[in-house]
C-alpha cells in the first residue's frame, strides 16, 4: 500500500521472487498509468516492473495475503489505513520512519492505536528505494512484538537481495529509524554550512549518543539501536547525498529553499521528539536544534554556537 519510492521498490523486489505481489495505488489513474508503462517513472525511473507484479486501486486486491506492507509517510499513515477493513488475519507491516506529531507514537504504535486487533510489525533499516528496486544487496530489520509472527514475516519478506534480521524490540527499531533522520538533517546542515567532515563526524557520534539516551529513557534495547535500524541507518543517511533528510539539512546550511513536496520524515520527527523529551526530561540538544532549524527559529551559526558552548562533561 503506497506507490511512492519505498512501496514500489519493495513490491518490485518481492515480486521478483515469483510470489504474488500487488502494488496498491491511491488513484485508479495512477494504477492504470503504472500498469501501462510497467515502471514508476516519477520515483524509480530505472526499475522495470517484473511481469508478475500486479498493480491495483481496488482494496480487495491487497487483503488476505501473507502480509500488507504499508509504505506511506508516517504523518499520513493514519489517514491511509482508515480505509482498510479492521477484521483481518493478515499482519500489517509499517514501512515508514518517524514519530506522529499529534500523538508521539511510532509506526506500529499508530497501527495498533487505529486497529487494535491486527498483528503489526515494522520493516526498517539502511536502504535507499533505488538500491532495493534494482536488486542491490540490502539488509533490514523486521521488528514484531510477537516472535512467531516476526519469524513468519522474516521468512516471507526475505529475498535473494533483501536480507532481513528480526527482533521483538519494536520500540528500539522505531526509535532508531525515526531519530537517524533527525541526525541526518543536522549532519546535512553542518556540511551545507561548510563546517567540514570533522564536524559531521562529531555530530553523527553525539547524535548517536543522543539516540541511545532517548532509547534508554523510552525502553529501547541498546543493541537494537546499535544495529541496522539505528547505527546502520544513521551511517547511511548522514553521509549520502541520496538522502532527502540529509539534503534538507544541506539546504538549511546553505540557506537555500527546499521543495516542500519532498518526503522528509525527520522534520516532523524532530518536533515530536523535542516535545516528548521536554515532557520526560531527556537531554536532546541536537534534536531540539533540528526542530528549531526546520521551523526557522534559529540559524545554523547560532545552533553550532549553542552546541559548542554547552557545559563540558564526560563522554
Ligand atoms: N525512499 C526511500 O529510499 C525509503 C523510504 N523509507 C520510508 O518510507 C516511507 C515512505 O517514503 P517514500 O516511499 O520514500 O515516500 P514517497 O514520497 O516516495 O511516496 C509516498 C507515497 O505515499 C502515498 N500517500 C501519501 N498519503 C497517503 C494517503 N493518505 N493514503 C494513501 N497513500 C498516501 C503517496 O501518494 C506516495 O505514493 C517514509 O517513512 C520513508 O522514511 C524507508 C526506507 C527507504
Ligand atoms: O530511510 C532512508 C534510508 O534508509 C531514506 O532516507 P531519506 O528519507 O532521507 O531519503
Q: Got a strand count?
A: 7
**Which value, in Å, is the CA radius of gyration?**
19 Å
Bound molecules: 1,4-dihydronicotinamide adenine dinucleotide, 1,3-dihydroxyacetonephosphate
Q: Looking at the structure, what is the overall shape?
A: globular
Indicate the proportion of strand residues: 5-15%
The end-to-end distance, rounded to whole angstroms, is 43 Å
Helix percentage: 40-55%
Name the strands of the widest sheet in spatial order.
3-4-5-6-7
Largest sheet: 5 strands, mixed
GO molecular function, one term: glycerol-3-phosphate dehydrogenase [NAD(P)+] activity
Keywords: Cytoplasm, Lipid biosynthesis, Lipid metabolism, NAD, NADP, Nucleotide-binding, Oxidoreductase, Phospholipid biosynthesis, Phospholipid metabolism
GO biological process, one term: glycerol-3-phosphate catabolic process
Family: Belongs to the NAD-dependent glycerol-3-phosphate dehydrogenase family.
Structure description:
The mean pLDDT is about 95. This protein starts with a helix and ends in a 7-residue tail after the last helix. It is globular and about 55 Å long. The protein has helices at about 5-15, 30-35, 75-80, 105-115, 130-135, 145-155, 170-190, 195-220, 220-225, 230-235, 245-255, 265-280, 285-295, 300-310; strands at about 20-25, 55, 70, 90-95, 120-125, 140-145, 160-165. It is built from 14 helices and seven strands. The chain has about 325 residues and is of the alpha/beta class. The site of 1,3-dihydroxyacetonephosphate has 13 residues, from helix 7, helix 10 and helix 11. One of its GO terms (cellular component) is cytosol. This is Glycerol-3-phosphate dehydrogenase [NAD(P)+].
Amino acid at each position: 500500500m503506497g506507490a511512492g519510492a519505498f512501496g514500489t521498490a519493495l513490491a518490485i523486489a518481492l515480486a521478483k521472487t515469483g510470489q504474488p505481489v500487488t502494488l496498491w495505488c491511491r488513484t485508479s489513474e495512477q494504477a492504470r498509468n503504472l500498469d501501462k508503462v510497467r515502471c514508476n517513472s516519477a520515483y524509480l525511473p530505472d526499475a522495470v516492473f517484473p511481469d508478475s507484479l500486479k498493480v491495483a486501486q481496488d482494496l480487495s486486491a491487497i487483503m488476505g495475503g501473507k502480509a500488507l506492507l504499508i509504505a506511506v509517510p508516517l504523518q499520513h499513515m493514519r489517514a491511509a489505513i482508515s480505509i482498510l477493513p479492521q477484521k483481518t488475519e493478515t499482519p500489517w507491516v509499517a514501512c515508514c520512519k518517524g514519530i506522529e506529531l499529534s500523538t508521539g507514537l511510532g509506526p506500529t504504535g499508530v497501527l495498533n492505536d487505529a486497529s487494535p486487533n491486527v498483528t503489526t510489525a515494522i520493516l526498517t533499516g539502511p536502504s535507499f528505494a533505488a538500491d532495493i528496486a534494482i536488486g542491490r544487496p540490502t539488509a533490514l530489520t523486521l521488528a514484531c512484538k510477537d516472535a512467531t509472527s516476526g519469524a513468519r514475516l522474516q521468512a516471507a519478506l526475505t529475498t535473494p537481495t533483501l536480507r532481513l534480521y528480526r527482533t521483538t524490540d519494536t520500540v528500539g527499531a522505531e526509535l532508531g529509524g525515526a531519530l537517524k533522520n533527525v541526525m541526518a538533517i543536522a549532519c546535512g546542515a553542518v556540511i551545507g554550512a561548510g563546517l567540514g567532515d570533522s564536524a559531521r563526524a562529531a555530530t553523527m557520534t553525539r547524535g548517536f549518543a543522543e539516540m541511545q539516551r532517548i532509547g534508554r529513557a523510552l525502553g529501547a534495547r541498546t543493541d537494537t539501536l546499535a544495529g541496522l535500524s539505528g547505527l546502520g541507518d544513521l551511517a547511511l543517511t548522514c553521509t549520502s547525498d541520496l538522502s532527502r533528510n540529509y539534503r534538507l539539512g544541506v539546504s538549511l546550511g546553505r540557506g537555500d529553499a527546499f521543495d516542500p513536496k519532498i518526503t522528509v520524515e525527520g522534520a516532523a520527527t524532530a518536533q515530536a521528539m523535542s516535545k516528548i523529551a521536554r515532557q520526560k526530561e531527556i537531554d536532546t540538544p541536537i534534536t531540539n536544534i533540528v526542530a528549531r532549524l526546520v521551523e526557522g527559529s534559529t540559524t545554523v551559526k547560532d545552533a553550532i554556537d549553542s552546541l559548542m558552548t554547552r557545559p563540558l562533561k564526560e563522554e
